[in-house]
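Dig into what follows:
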Amino acid sequence: MLSAHGIQLSFGEHTLIQDLSFDLNPGDRLGLVGPNGCGKTTLLRAVAGRVHPERGTVAGAMAQRIGYLAQGWEPEPGLRLGEVIERAAGPPPQLVAELERLAVHLAERPDDRVLQARYDEALEEFTVPAPPDRLPSLLARLELDRLDPNQLATSLSGGEKTRLALARLLLGEPRVLLLDEPTNHLDTDALAWLEDWLVGFSGAVVTASHDRLFLDRVCTRILAIDPETQAGSVFVGNYSAYTETLDTMRRKQWQAWREQNEEIRRMRSDIHRTKEQARHVEITTKPNQPNVRRLAKKVAKKAISREKKLDRYMSAEERVDKPGRAWDMKVDWGQRPHLGSSVLTLERLAVGYPGHPPLIEGVDLRIEAGARIAVVGANGSGKSSLLRTIRGELAPHAGRCVLGASVVPGYLAQEQETLDPTRSALELIQEVAPQSETDARNLLHHFLFTGDAPLRRAGTLSYGERARLALALLVAGGSNLLLLDEPTNHLDIPSRERFEHALAQFHGAVLAVSHDRYFVRSFATEQWRLEGGRIVVDGAA
């Protein structure tokens, strides 16, 4: 269906990927993995034809109908939900562009029978009506039929926007799907539907994702991009199979490196011993012992020969390099204000917006020190609104939220909308926790901000960089109650694992809204499940 050969991609003067090749066949589901900034999004854009590689080619792309889901898609301002869907239900833009291109060429070469045949095929595809039940069934499966078609598309929640973007994509009936973080903001039901649909999809899929369970359930191969070498390697199997293979490779490399070092140590010891033997004979013999001295010179030559052999061994291409240790995000919570036994009490709380029925009501719950609570539920059920109400950003519909006397809440917004896009990362850190530029840079360095990155405005940062900056601000703020809204969104897998480890070391209380199933399983000791406007409390996740 599609082949990439010798692809080289750059961002500015920085090379992201070089000499990358892979093939896509029907039924292939290729997962792109690698740390933030390694070039996954740029590669997807190159395959989609949105950017051109500096070197290499993508063969077969023009012959396929490609559907591209960009990360963080935003609908056009002013459009209502129904208008967005109506536009998406029309002929695919790619097919329209193909017809226009063929028409221009046919006008120049009206006798070209091959061109005429291709134009007729495209025109027939353009005029064939879509299956009458395709749109309603797709909207129902993505639960978009429950939404008001007259509401502004920009007012949708993060999960609703993702589902709308998927609907727009799938209505075009693509044969090759390019998905950039498709699971962001999706609830459990939508995730399950998407996974099942992709597994049954007869075309080819390339997806960049940090959702480990999604990669396990969907992918048949993994393309891992190494930012150090700018190379990509393809592994057969899902994400778990890839990590097992990687662990085995690393263990073998460490073993080979240790054995190599032992051999080098042995060779150096042998050379030293031989030299010492020759020197000892030289200084302990007399001129009237020429045969012994000749033997000593032979021994010295043997030492020189072994030194040359060692030099050749050290410079050989087969020499094993010491396995590198990845530079991951580091989270150190430091000292936090001590929490009393009661951290947060919700009394007859109802959550919602003025002029509308409450999203959640009848909440009588209490959070104690050390709590690890995951808030789960469908998109639009009120999870984010609950956090905003606890934080004081949204007034309760009824009832109240009572914080303990020593509680210092810290809030992490789902789409990092609390970050001032005009301020630099350095300025934002110094505003939250007044400190010297050196100390602020050191903190940001732990969150992978190096060089001039701390001086860049937040609005120019990538999604992953903004997520790490939001976490850095959370750490700098000295909070002992964390209110986290989708904290792992846009974090790469190493950063997610590091953040999960850091939360395990946090001594305060945590209330986290998350659709990351792996994160919820590893972190939560209790779940608040939103169903029918009520909160149902479950035990360990």
Summary: The mean pLDDT is 83. The two ends are 42 Å apart (CA to CA). The longest strand covers residues 14-24. The chain has three domains: 2-90+130-237, 258-315, 342-538.
